[in-house]
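Handover notes (outgoing to incoming on-call)

Open items:
1. RNA polymerase sigma-70 factor, ECF subfamily: sequence verified, structure written out, both below. Nothing else pending on this one.
2. Nothing else urgent.
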Amino acid sequence: MEVKKAIELAKENNQAAFKFLLDSYWNDVYGFQLKRTENENDAEDITIQTFSKAFDKIDTYNDKYVFKTWLITISKNIHIDLVRKHKSSIISKINSKDDAIVYDIPDESPTPEDKIIREQNLAKLLRDIKKLKPHYQEVINLRYFQELSYKDISIQLDEPINNVKVKLLRAKKLLAQILTKPNA
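RNA polymerase sigma-70 factor, ECF subfamily structure tokens:
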């Protein structure tokens, strides 16, 4: 499959085209971020976010530009946003006016009420997860309830790691939509 054709098919929500684009450009975007962040986990997270955002906005892609350049630009902007967020949180912590304040550290151990609320929230979350398609339920279960690594999930599902990462990201997005719906 050629890139131009894959982009056209991806605009029609063709999963094979998304997979082709992901496989074709993963190393380029990941390598770019690895040089910027010098951290494998951050580079991987930003790369996953890049493909997620690109695939969500694939209809806005203008074929006057090179697809790889478009992906790298998205990736660069995600990284810049993360750096800005991180800097602003550090600055707000540093700018506390009075260093002589005595801090009262609250007891953060859960109360019996907290435990009941947590159990109710977990039950609701499990009901909402069951609203997802089975393959999304499975990947969420493996990652968050069985706490398997991406590599282990990849082996268990017999799918490439990149597919697992994207599937998990899509599952989280769909679950977030379910959770934020009124009367969900």
